[in-house]
Amino acid sequence: MATMNWAGLKLPRCPQPAGNFRPYNITGNLVFLAGQTCQVDGRMAYTGKVGEGLSVDEGYQAARICMQNLLAALALAIDDDWTRVQRCIRLTGYVNAAADFAEVPRVINGASDLIGELMGENGHHARTAIGVATLPGNAAVEVEGIFEISAATRSDGHPPPFVGGA
Asked: Boundaries of each Endoribonuclease L-PSP/chorismate mutase-like domain copy (predicted)?
């Protein structure tokens, strides 16, 4: 079990999916989390292209918000039982980037740094950082992830069903 150092961080409500998909899927002991943008209270906190109107620092902050939203989706998946979270396996970060922007990894460090702060060694993960031409809602950043969890069972011994929504 990973120890979570919340240090005053309060998770938002998980944003509702903007299409025909779930915020997460569980198979075995892995939780696959759908991409989360930098929405705060239903509004995009950072829009546009990093490197063209948005700075690396603004992109970094957007990635931190994405990670907070990703953790909100993880909270749904584990029914707020953080003792089940073992480690962060992988993150994939997408940056709405200017054509010549080459600092995509520095932007996605916002998400990586936050999960590292919260989980320590168990927050260290494999990662891909990709610059893209556009993202949903003109978001500056989107991050998806895979986490390892321990099994949970109901009193009847079966795993809990998917519970959608926020």
From this structure: 6-140
